[in-house]
Design goal:
Blueprint lengths: L36 H20 L6 H7 L12 H12 L5 E3 L11 H7 L9 H11 L2 H11 L3 H10 L9 H6 L19 H6 L14 H19 L2 H10 L1 H13 L13 H18 L17 E6 L3 E2 H7 L4 H7 L7 E2 L6 E5 L3 H12 L8 E5 L6 H8 L3 H8 L5 E3 L4 E5 L18 E3 L4 E7 L6 H8 L3 H8 L11 E7 L16 H15 L1
Antiparallel strand pairs: 1-2, 2-5, 3-4, 6-8, 7-9, 10-11
Helix pairs in contact: 1-3, 3-16, 5-13, 7-10, 10-11, 11-12, 11-13, 14-15, 14-16
Length: 538
C-alpha cells in the first residue's frame, strides 16, 4: 500500500537483521518467520495428541494401538513416523487455506521422454552445409549437451505435453536448447528473456505480464503457452515449419520480405533459398543439429541423461503473499532449486493478489502443503515484506534507517543496482510485521523507476573481447568490478568472448576550444596561434 507507514522498531514488530547477510538465507527472515517445522509440529502436538493419550488409558483398546500411541512404546514395535503422522492429521483436520495442488498428468512409463520426443518428429529434414556444420559442433560439445539436457529435464515433460495437445511436431520441444540453452532465467543483449526468449513487445502481444512483481517471459508455464501460440500463428501464416521458425527468430516481416524478393526474381521461396540475416541462416540448422543428436545420440558418442516420461513438477495455486525463502523452506528444498522452477518473480515476495502459480518438484508438493497447513495454524504471516511509496526528496537510506534494515539489504530486495537511485513515487518493499495485511491488489500495477545517482553517467553496452577479464574491463572503464557484477546480475566473474555487459560510465567532458589571442596591430600572429592550437587537438 502506498500509504503504509514505517513502523518504529519498538513494540511487537521485530525488524529483520540483514547486515552482511544474504537476503535469501534463513537469517534474513524476521524472527516470526524463523521456524523449524519439526519444532512447530511438536508445539502443536499437545492439542492434537491429547485425545489420543486419553484414549490410551482405556484398557479396552488392543495392545497394538496402545503401543502406537504410547510415548514410551518399545523400540521393537514398528510405529509410523510421528512427524509424518502429525502432518497428515494437520492436513486433514486443518487443510492449507492458501494453496491447492493441481492434479498431475500421467505419462507412459514404458518409454522415456527422449523416445516420446523422437516418435513425435514431423518436420522435414534440413540438409546442407550449415546443418552438417552445426551437428558437428554440437557433437563436439558433449558436456554442453549434457548440461542443457540436465536443465531441460525439469521442463521438457510439460513442454512435450503442451505440444502434443496441439498436434504440433515435437522438434519444437528442442527449440529452447537453441534459444536459451534451457535456462529460463536467460536474458539476451536485445532484452529477450526466458526459455523461449521473448522480447518485451512480443511478450505483451502474447499476454505475458511484465511488471514490478513478475516477468512471465521467464515463467515456464506461461512462456511455453505463448511460444506455442506464436509458433502456431507463424505456421498458419507461412504454411512451412522452417519458415515459421525463421520468422520466430527474425520476425514475420523479415521472412515476408525475403519471400517477396525471391518471388520477384523467380527464385525458390523455401527456407534454404532465402537471403536472411546471418543469425537466422544458422538458426534452423542448429535445431536440426539438436534433432540429429537426440534421434541417434549413439552415432555421435553422446550419452543423454535419463529423463522419465512423467511430470517433474507439480503446479500449486496460492492466494496469499509468501516469501520465496519461506516457500522453499515449506517445500524443504534449496532456494536455488525453487528459483530454477519459479524464475519469473522479480522480488523476494510472491504477491497473493496476483493469483500466482508456483512450481514444485512433484515429490515435494505434499510436503509443502503439509508444512503450510502446520504453519497457517499458528496464524503468523507467510511474508515478511510489504509496500511503501517513496515520498519526494526521501532517500533510500532514510527509509532503511526508519524500517530497521540496512540500505544494502533494501537495495538487494528491490533490485536497485549500484550508482542508481529510485525516483519519487516509486513503490518499494520494506519489512512487514505480523499486524500488516497482504499487499493490496491495486499495487499489482505499482510503478518503479530507476535514475542514475549522478547526472554525468551514461549507460553503454560493452562487448567482451577474447582475453578480457572482469578486473580488466573495470579498469578500462574506471568502474568497480563488483558494480559490473551487480549491473549485469552475473553469476560468475568469468567472461566469454562476445558477451555483452551493461556499464554505467562517466560522460566525457567536451574538449575546450582554444583561446584566440588578438594582439593589436598583428592579426596574423593570432591566426597562426589558433591554427597551431587546433592542429594539436586533431
Amino acid at each position: 500500500m502506498a500509504g503504509t507507514a514505517l513502523r518504529p522498531k519498538a513494540g511487537l514488530y521485530t525488524a529483520p537483521t540483514f547486515h552482511a547477510v544474504d537476503p535469501r538465507s534463513s537469517m534474513a527472515l524476521p524472527r516470526i518467520l524463523r521456524f523449524d517445522f519439526r519444532a512447530r509440529a511438536c508445539a502443536l502436538a499437545a492439542c492434537l495428541l491429547a485425545p489420543l493419550a486419553a484414549t490410551a488409558e482405556d484398557s479396552s483398546l488392543p495392545p497394538t494401538e496402545l503401543a502406537v500411541i504410547s510415548s514410551t512404546s518399545s523400540a521393537t514395535v514398528t510405529t509410523p513416523d510421528p512427524l509424518g503422522q502429525l502432518l497428515r492429521k494437520l492436513e486433514s483436520d486443518h487443510p492449507a487455506d492458501s494453496a491447492r495442488v493441481e492434479p498431475l498428468v500421467s505419462g507412459d512409463t514404458s518409454i522415456d521422454l527422449w523416445e516420446r520426443i523422437r516418435r513425435g518428429f514431423k518436420m522435414p529434414e534440413l540438409t546442407g552445409r550449415l546443418a552438417a556444420n552445426s551437428t558437428r559442433w554440437y557433437a563436439s560439445q558433449p558436456d554442453y549437451i549434457g548440461r542443457m539436457a540436465s536443465r531441460g529435464s525439469r521442463y521438457l515433460f510439460h513442454i512435450v505435453e503442451e505440444i502434443e495437445k496441439r498436434g504440433m511436431p515435437t522438434e519444437l520441444a528442442l527449440l529452447p536448447f537453441v534459444e536459451s540453452a534451457m535456462q529460463p532465467e536467460a536474458e539476451s543483449h536485445a532484452k529477450a528473456a526466458g526459455l523461449w526468449q521473448f522480447i518485451p513487445s512480443t511478450g505483451k502481444l502474447y499476454q505475458l505480464e511484465q511488471n514490478l512483481w513478475k516477468d512471465e517471459r521467464r515463467d515456464v508455464l506461461e512462456s511455453t503457452r505463448a511460444a506455442l501460440d506464436y509458433l502456431q500463428k507463424l505456421y498458419n501464416d507461412f504454411g512451412d515449419w522452417h519458415l515459421a521458425l525463421a520468422a520466430y527468430n527474425c520476425g514475420e516481416g523479415c521472412v515476408a520480405k525475403a519471400i517477396a524478393r525471391n518471388r520477384a526474381r523467380h527464385k525458390p521461396v523455401n527456407y534454404a533459398s532465402l537471403r536472411l540475416p546471418r543469425e537466422t541462416q544458422y538458426y534452423v540448422p542448429k535445431l536440426q543439429a539438436i534433432k540429429n543428436i537426440v534421434r541417434a545420440p549413439q552415432d555421435y558418442e553422446i550419452a543423454l541423461p535419463a529423463i522419465q516420461n512423467e511430470p517433474y513438477f507439480a503446479v500449486v495455486r496460492k492466494t496469499r503473499d509468501m516469501d520465496i525463502v519461506t516457500a522453499a523452506r515449506l517445500a524443504e528444498m534449496p532456494v536455488e532449486e525453487f528459483e530454477s522452477l519459479n524464475p519469473s518473480f522479480n522480488r523476494p515476495v510472491m504477491v497473493g493478489a496476483g493469483q500466482s502459480r508456483i512450481l514444485l518438484p512433484a515429490d515435494r508438493a505434499d510436503t509443502f502443503i503439509g508444512n503450510l497447513a502446520a504453519f497457517e495454524a499458528t496464524g503468523q504471516p507467510l511474508a515478511s515484506w510489504t509496500t511503501y511509496g517513496l515520498k519526494p526528496n526521501e532517500t533510500l537510506a532514510q527509509v532503511a534507517e526508519r524500517a530497521g534494515i540496512s540500505e544494502s539489504a533494501l537495495r538487494e530486495a528491490n533490485r536497485i543496482p549500484p550508482k542508481f537511485r529510485i525516483a519519487s513515487g516509486s513503490t518499494i518493499l520494506i519489512p512487514r510485521d505480523e499486524t500488516m495485511d497482504d499487499i493490496a491488489p491495486e499495487k499489482l500495477d505499482a510503478s518503479f523507476a530507476l535514475v542514475p545517482e549522478q547526472p554525468n553517467l551514461r549507460r553503454i553496452t560493452y562487448r567482451v573481447r577474447r582475453g578480457d577479464s572482469l578486473s580488466g574491463v573495470a579498469r578500462r572503464w574506471h568502474v568497480q568490478a563488483d558494480d559490473i557484477v551487480a549491473w549485469n546480475r552475473l553469476r560468475s566473474p568469468s567472461l566469454f568472448a562476445g558477451q555483452r555487459l551493461n556499464l554505467m560510465v562517466a560522460v566525457r567532458a567536451a574538449p575546450k576550444k582554444a583561446a584566440v589571442v588578438h594582439k593589436a596591430g598583428n592579426p596574423g600572429t593570432s591566426r597562426k596561434k589558433t591554427q597551431v592550437a587546433n592542429a594539436g587537438r586533431r
